[in-house]
From TrEMBL:
Protein's name according to its UniProt entry: Pectinesterase
Keywords, alphabetical: Aspartyl esterase, Hydrolase
Domain Pectinesterase catalytic per the UniProt entry, residue ranges: 18-247
MF annotations from Gene Ontology: pectinesterase activity
GO terms, biological process: cell wall modification
A Pfam entry, by short name: Pectinesterase
Length: 346
């Protein structure tokens, strides 16, 4: 029993125990409402659950990045129980939609079989057309979220950053198409960004980021000291773009069309870019008449690099000046918040 001066603690285990919950969902349902930190320690094992963290100050701590695995298999092209198509948002394995939460030492996986689905004949009734399958979603109410020593695994749309400020430290994030995307303000510090090998079912062409940063936001997706590497040596050279500008279709008073205010911002600083990287790319959207239009990386986005290295860096344009790069720091990007792993509390 926790007294009023103690933080709340719970444990989840695959092994039956009177001192542990049998599922993460049950532990989350017991989250207190008094504002004190609630830490859920999750024992080793694979937990087939799809979860929502909607209380502030909730902290999920696994037994190790390769030992505690949270896995779900939803995909945007599936039908839900009511017969409606699941959206990209609702394909997530885990959503954090609260403030001051953290994830540590675990894997979050969307286990939708992207490779197996692509290998099915085009006329197969079981083939899914929309293959967005989110592992982690940071929702609109998510702020000051810290993710450390976590693996995020998927193929298309692995990480969806919609919230305010989030900090990823020494994480592994893998995917093939727009696998880090959204309009949130996120820092990736000393992470491994892993391009998946899809050569068995299609030509390996991928996109690392698809930011939709609003024009009134100075910063979007910022990578410090990260390694952009390949899952397999089979992935060819110049097959992955660092990013493309996502202008999501949005409902306005005069119609529904690609958001002109979503001028995405992605910046890589002091990162290693392996030879699969070829620079930046364009992305399509819909105009007010529903016709396809294209958004260019040089005029419809804010894409930049600074002091990156590797074969991919040599062929990637849009390099910041020293003066412009000096504006990029964790303190500047996260005004009013320093992640605990940086201030000595963690």
């Amino acid at each position: 029993m926790n007294n009023k001066n103690q933080n709340h603690i719970a444990r989840v285990s695959k092994a039956p125990s009177k001192d542990a919950y049998i599922s993460i969902e049950l532990a989350l349902q017991s989250a207190p409402n008094d504002g004190r930190p609630y830490t859920i320690y999750i024992d080793e094992g694979t937990y087939e659950e799809r979860l929502n963290v909607e209380h502030n100050n909730v902290h999920l701590v696994g037994a190790g990045k390769n030992k505690t695995i949270i896995s779900g298999a939803a995909v945007a092209g599936q039908l839900d129980r009511s017969g409606e198509i699941i959206s990209t948002l609702n394909s997530r394995t885990l959503m954090v939609n609260a403030k001051d939460c953290s994830l540590k030492s675990l894997t979050i996986r969307n286990s939708f079989d992207y490779i197996g689905n692509a290998a099915k004949p085009a006329d197969s009734p079981d083939k899914v057309t929309h293959t967005q399958a989110v592992a982690l979603l940071l929702g609109n109410e998510c702020d000051q979220c810290e993710i450390s020593d976590v693996a995020l695994e998927g193929y298309q749309d692995t990480l969806f950053v919609k919230g305010l400020r989030s900090y990823f430290h020494r994480c592994d994030i893998s995917g093939c198409v727009d696998f880090i995307f959204g309009n949130g303000t996120a820092i990736f510090d000393q992470c491994r960004i892993i391009a998946r090998d899809t050569s068995s079912i299609e030509s390996s062409v991928g996109f690392v980021t698809a930011p939709s940063t609003q024009t009134d936001q100075e910063f979007g997706l910022t990578f410090f000291n990260c390694d952009l590497i390949k899952e397999s040596p089979q992935i060819p050279q110049e097959s992955y773009a660092l990013g493309r500008p996502w202008h999501p279709t949005t409902l306005f008073s005069d119609g529904k069309y690609a958001d002109p205010n979503a001028v995405g911002c992605t910046t890589f600083i002091s990162c290693f870019l392996d030879d699969h990287i070829y620079g930046w790319d364009k992305m399509s959207g819909k105009d007010i008449n529903g016709d396809q239009i294209w958004f260019s990386p040089d005029t419809d986005a804010r894409f930049n690099l600074y002091q990156c290295r590797g074969d991919g860096a040599a062929r990637s344009p849009f390099h910041l000046s020293e003066e412009s790069a000096s504006k990029y720091s964790i303190q500047t990007i996260f005004t009013g918040w320093i992640p605990k792993s940086l201030d000595g509390e963690k």
